[in-house]
Amino acid sequence: MAVSDTSRQSLIPNFIYTSSISPSNHLMSNKSNLTSFPSTSPVNQDNKFMVQAPSEPLGKIEMYSPRFYAACTVGGILSCGLTHMAVTPLDLVKCNMQIDPVKYKSISSGFGVLLKEQGVRGFFRGWVPTLLGYSAQGACKFGFYEFFKKYYSDIAGPEYAAKYKTLIYLAGSASAEVIADVALCPMEAVKVRVQTQPGFARGLGDGLPKFVRSEGALGLYKGLVPLWGRQIPYTMMKFASFETIVENLYKYAIPTPKNECSKSLQLGVSFAGGYVAGVFCAIVSHPADNLVSFLNNAKGASVGDAVKKLGVWGLFTRGLPLRIVMIGTLTGAQWGIYDAFKVFVGLPTTGGAAPALVAEVAKA
């Protein structure tokens, strides 16, 4: 059954939209199918790029306005929080394989051990800190990425922003992830401890205070540097490769220009591009992921202790096949959800060519 405009409006915070519109802005609404492209401001110095709201004939979301960033932030919360919570069983097995490879020898045996020792409920141990932590991370990751991408594009200017767009994606995603990991780190520390030490705590409610009593409040950030080491390369790969893959899919694999493709096809491209990007992300960030799991599980442990125990080969390979499956699916789903929400509120999907806008930038 189709969702009516009125019911869909009720699901979206009103502050995302602006109800005021000028005639010049109305003309700009014809560009609503264009993807966001680095440094659009030189084109629209006098007329803001406005996007039609889904249920208000005169309601618009102005590109790169506070309402635009608010929409991207909400999309990031849904994208990261829901997907990470959904793969909690896989994450649980992966963490235990990294910490105790003797007991958790493989993916299948890992699930068997957990089922035998903790039952079906054990597969979702730590889901609350996972949901809260990655929701906070997603809000900062996607919201600040859109902000920094625009900010660095404006600094570079239209010519260099177009020429070095991959560097813009890398810099914007790295800057966003630095902030996002500060939001994630406390919940990640509690999650790993709950998941890898049976009996430590049932979940966040008793796990957080117990962790703070044991290691102090600053102990929640003990894994921040390794987390940056894992997440910053991961996110740089996630955004830059996604933008590049999607652009090339529209350029070489899909004969129809993006703005003429159906929304369902565009969302399919987002998922496919996200999945491939996720495989690259898993490989690049896996050594640091092993370090984060080791440090958050062992009280007082250092990076040197982790390298000594796991070995260099173990850092790169232990738990990698499972993580490739998990992160590939996760990243594909995240981009699918994020772009689905953007379409839901009337924004264009991420990535791909924007021929008309690029042409205007080239003429500037």
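^ that was protein a. below is b, sequence first then the tokens
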Amino acid sequence: MRRVREESGKAVPERKEQPIFTTRAHVFQIDPSTKKNWVPASKQAVTVSYFYDVTRNSYRIISVDGAKVIINSTITPNMTFTKTSQKFGQWADSRANTVFGLGFSSEQQLTKFAEKFQEVKEAARLARDKSQEKTETSSNHSQASSVNGTDDEKASHASPADTHLRSENDKLKIALTQSAANVKKWEVELQTLRESNARLTTALQESAASVEQWKRQFSICRDENDRLRSKIEELEEQCSELNREKENNSQLKRRIEELQSELQEKETELKDLRKQSEIIPQLMSECEYVSEKLEAAERDNQNLEDKVRSLKTDIEESKFRQRHLKGELKSFLEVLDGKIDDLHDFRRGLSKLGSDN
């Protein structure tokens, strides 16, 4: 795959490294002046990848924003990735003399990145151990070859005892030189580890102080948020009370308008009554005249009722007489029918006599 390096401020790809893990995050670096605050290295979330260099057997974290390399950190066994929150993690790079921070969009992405960091860190430790073993084996082999060559040369010019002493002396010198070199090497490595540990401790303390500061700021913001929320609730309650007052005022205004309209109607009715009161005497005289007329009409009505009663009596008598006449007429008709039947019989008798004659 590709490897990224910086040349004249540009990212140049080389086909020596392979990406083994890729994610996206917001990149930060610790402020070099204060060593407390984070400085954004990217304006937005960028790609952050783990690369494995097959040639050097090493691992790096690389992130590029456009043409700018913002992370180029070689992972060593001494590095530690620390989770400072649910979505934020950091690690210190002593070679770059800085602390990198990554802000993820979810806790799962942060967990995967941290697990990959631990895995790559363990792989880097194994690679370092193998490299040291190879170096020590090669050094011992070269030292043995050098000692054997010296012994062969001296053996031809010296006695066996001198040769043995010189050989032992050379071995001691070589062992002493190697021991001194190892001591210096270990002292340098120890000093480097102490300095790196001190920087990491300082960065961790500063990070802890920053975390405490952020916690205090978060607590202050949360208290301020609670205060503002309670204030908003009070304002909303006041607004609801104002709305209720406005509603009551509007109802009162409508009631006042209704009462005013009713008052105008009553005043109009009062004016009409006043006008009517002016014609009351005339109405009373007319009422007396009408009362007299009504009394006369009642008298006439009484007379007419008397006449109606007498007419009803006459009608009843007439009906009785009519029924009586109907009964007499019916009797007469019955007699007449008998007479007619007798006449028919008589005619039939006459007809029979005529036919006999």
